[in-house]
Design a protein that fits this description.
223 residues, six-stranded mixed sheet, 32% helix
Length: 223
């Protein structure tokens, strides 16, 4: 599969009268690193939601990972989501679970064996430099640390694609750089497709990337 996302004439909105994205046509290559930029309220997060089926197109065709999302069944959508890693702006960690269990969540959903889960979680805790916080709960961590847990959770099951919504929006420089390094590493070493919604593309990035910009409901590729 050369294209992991194919959108043809896609319109997105939260009601039938006002479209936030209007008849957008674009595609995202498998294994690419993609930035989606735009002013606040331009529809960046709306577009990202459509990629994991949280918002269905009002018009046009949207195919993600070979799955047509316009009329997808809930079982097929759940199957697709098992192959995605999603990093939310507000982390969406389970506060009642310690950070190990939060990281393990996609592995538990995918039915991995306990020994495999433990090994992967330990490896990821080292990777995001939180081994010293092992056993703690999300609310005992700083915002930057919580986002690093969310990042580890997104990487845990080696997804085909990571979707990240402003992953460094509220973070200090140390955590921000760590998140970018993790996303770069996933893209380069694991050939994971990475799609990031952001206000600002980091200057330190070493990978080649594609850049889409949203303005007045239209999506343009920036060269």
């Amino acid at each position: 599969m050369d294209k992991v996302i194919v959108a043809e004439g896609v319109s997105l909105g939260y009601n039938n009268y006002e479209m936030i994205i209007n008849e957008a046509t674009f595609s995202i290559d498998n294994g690419s690193f993609v930035f989606i930029t735009g002013a606040s309220g331009s529809g960046k997060s709306t577009l990202l939601k459509s990629f994991f089926g949280a918002l269905k197109p009002k018009k046009g065709s949207l195919i993600v990972g070979g799955v047509e999302l316009n009329s997808v069944s809930s079982s097929k959508l759940n199957l697709l989501r098992k192959h995605l890693g999603i990093v939310f702006q507000d982390y969406k960690l389970v506060n009642e679970w310690n950070i190990e269990k939060n990281i393990a969540l996609p592995l538990l959903i995918n039915g991995y064996e306990k020994s495999v889960i433990e090994k992967q979680v330990e490896s990821l805790l080292k990777h995001v430099r939180l081994k010293h916080q092992s056993g703690k709960f999300p609310l005992e961590l700083s915002g930057g640390e919580q986002q690093r847990v969310a990042m580890a959770r997104a990487l845990a099951h080696n997804p085909i694609m990571i979707l990240a919504d402003e992953p460094t929006g509220n973070l200090d420089d140390y955590s921000s750089q760590l998140i970018w390094n993790l996303l770069e590493g996933a893209n380069e070493q694991l050939e994971t497709t990475v799609v990031v919604v952001t206000h600002r593309i980091p200057q330190t990035l070493k990978v080649d990337y594609k850049h889409f910009h949203i303005e007045k409901g239209s999506i343009y590729e920036v060269n």
